[in-house]
Design brief:
There is one protein chain. It is built from eight helices and eight strands. It is globular and about 45 Å long. It binds D-xylitol-5-phosphate and zinc ion. The site of zinc ion has 6 residues, from strand 2. D-xylitol-5-phosphate binds next to strand 2, strand 8 and helix 7.
Length: 226
Amino acid sequence: MTLPVRLSASILAADFACLGQQIAEAERAGADWIHVDVMDGVFVPPISFGLPIIAAARKSTSLPLDVHLMIVHPERHVESMVAAGASWVTVHTETCPHLHRVVQQIREAGARPGVAINPATPVCLLEDILPFVDMVLVMTVNPGFGGQRFVDTTLRKVRDVRARAEALGHEIEIEVDGGIHAGTAPEVVANGANVLVAGTAVFGAPGGVAAGIAALRESVVRDLAG
Ligand code: DX5
Ligand code: ZN
């Protein structure tokens, strides 16, 4: 794998009373992307936030905004999300009967498309969409909440996605989301993930955002070094 390991800081765990400062702090500390979790209270139990927060995040950083849509009918919102500043738009296979159409729609709107699968959704469902996407998000927890425990069986899925992408000769980003911290980051990277989403491990780090990001980075570097 030649893609760099990137860190996408999930603002779900940020302090919304000072969101702009939190995002700026993550950027200064070396986050590569800002991960933005949109939840509708239907596909997943909670309602998180929508367009105004994406627009506010856009004003706070020049980093790519990695928008993760945990909503039904994502196709109704793609253009407005991109207009608000989304650089990446990732939709769940579980919400999209017309997944190929939505992926094209995201690209035409000017963002890069990703598809996400829940822990119990099989990787084989991605077979016919893989050539059309720039990223696969393998959920490493059931979506909806921050601070959950990493589901170990998802490691095999990460490996499977990487193998399928390599067989196609298609260099896609493989993102993991949920329960990622210095203890789990090395094994997801070893299994082929290259974009690590972290909320609690960044914005909830006891030593602060910079210390959280440094701990994540060090864990991966240490592991890659042997
Ligand atoms: C969960 C969200 C995640 C969440 C991860 O449904 O998609 O992005 O912020 O939180 P942590 O890093 O705390 O597991
Ligand atoms: Zn997410």
